């Protein structure tokens, strides 16, 4: 999860992680929550973007709904919170970000957090790191709030030279926590609601799936038939998961209470337009700048360092 307070740092970091221009250089805010998939140094990752913590143009009901949606997009929980800042523009709001994270994600979330500092141009990285560690006490004080963990990234997403180092730092942090992802009461609530919605959608599409299988049985034989069925099942499963992540009972409750039924339809259909994603691996919960509703934090352990999740 890449968390920032305001400005473009979150979006620059998403571009840097995925190695492509997901967001244009002019983007400084986001009113919704979306998930993008890609690779970081050969590892499949998912990055979820949401509203900036200090975005004043979003109403409280809308923010609450999008924070819930962002949790649904990364269930069962993020492996890492990547907290993005511009190292030349640290604001008072940036300094307060760690406090808001504890309030909204749980008091243990900073154990899973790392600061990502954006810089511009072909600057000497060693000199920049010395500045963070030794000479700039504002930056040093900032990263100490996150266990002293930090990484520098170039605003130019085409610079791929530090991908492997960033992935290694994330892996080491996750391994030090037992190889687990971050969880909390509200992440568990999100997971339960998404699973219930998935079950409902599968029942609704049972006849469609059965008909598709019957057609395959007419066209294919033995091994090819198994291959086609597996591919179809995987695609349908990913489509149902994606739909359940952005439209379920938890989100509908938030929408109806805060925004009215007219907005519910538009919000759900708009989210469906570009949010269907396929299976993948480690989750980088990139609500870059997003803040998710307050909950008591914790660490849920899973087998292996960076366990695979079909949520990307």
TrEMBL record:
Protein family according to the UniProt entry: Belongs to the TRAFAC class TrmE-Era-EngA-EngB-Septin-like GTPase superfamily. AIG1/Toc34/Toc159-like paraseptin GTPase family. IAN subfamily.
Entry annotated with the keyword Nucleotide-binding: yes
Keyword GTP-binding belongs to the record: yes
One example GO MF annotation: GTP binding
PANTHER family in the record: GTPASE IMAP FAMILY MEMBER 4-LIKE-RELATED (PTHR10903:SF177), GTPASE, IMAP FAMILY MEMBER-RELATED (PTHR10903)
InterPro entries the UniProt entry points to: G_AIG1, GIMA/IAN/Toc, P-loop_NTPase
Keywords carried by this UniProt record: GTP-binding, Nucleotide-binding
Highest taxon above the source species: Eukaryota
Pfam families: AIG1
Domain annotation AIG1-type G: ranges: 1-191
The name this protein goes by in its record: AIG1-type G domain-containing protein
